[in-house]
Amino acid sequence: MNQTGPTYKGTFVTLEGPEGAGKTTQVKLLSKELKALGVDHEVTRDPGGTALGKQIRRILLSNDYVVAPLAELLLYQADRAQHVAEKILPALERGALVICDRYIDSTVAYQGYGRELDFELINTLNQMSTQGLTPDLTILFDIESADGLSRLHPGGHDRMEREDIEFHRRVREGYRKIASANPDRFEILDASKAMTTVQEEFRKILSTHFGERHRLAEVMTRI
Ligand code: TMP
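Structure tokens for the assembled complex are given below, as produced in the milestone run.
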């Protein structure tokens, strides 16, 4: 797959969305079932998919630092460079279905639309850190910002979640613009619906695109 970047046998799916869209919960549920069915897969997240990345994630989300926007951008990219090289590409090369919670579009949405950093710079860095690896499919879990934020854990918010509502609105609108500019790569899912409905739609999308290649039909029948 993949037209300009590295070649591989597997399938690369990324999940995107504003805060509180529920993608992490969905991917955890799915992973359990894929495991039970013996489907070769890797569920991972950006930032924090490697041992090095976990440290970077801790720094990025900590409320102990005031992080300059450019430093923030470079930290996300450092995490991604390690993640692609150490985990994502090897799994794709062996033929696995790789599902990554956030990837390059998060940087365009948060650092581009949210922080208003230069899009050309972001695209150049995204290209570098990923070695040109673009997802085969990206699912946008779309939810209105206030709705998503209201679903977050009450016990405290990380540095990104604490940004004001206007920042989060720019992120959400940014995602919608990215999706409409890349209709071949994106599927949009209404994440404001009930959890079981989202679960069903998420699986339907995966199974429609990759059911045969990764034996996902069985997963569909287990909802
Ligand atoms: P999450 O994985 O729990 O959603 O937390 C990651 C946070 O980092 C989330 O607020 C989105 C943000 N983020 C960026 O700002 N830029 C990025 O490139 C990525 C991957 C995430």
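The longest strand covers residues 11-16. Residues 19, 45-47, 76, 102, 106-107, 110-111, 160 surround thymidine-5'-phosphate (CB under 6 Å). Further analysis is deferred to the final report.
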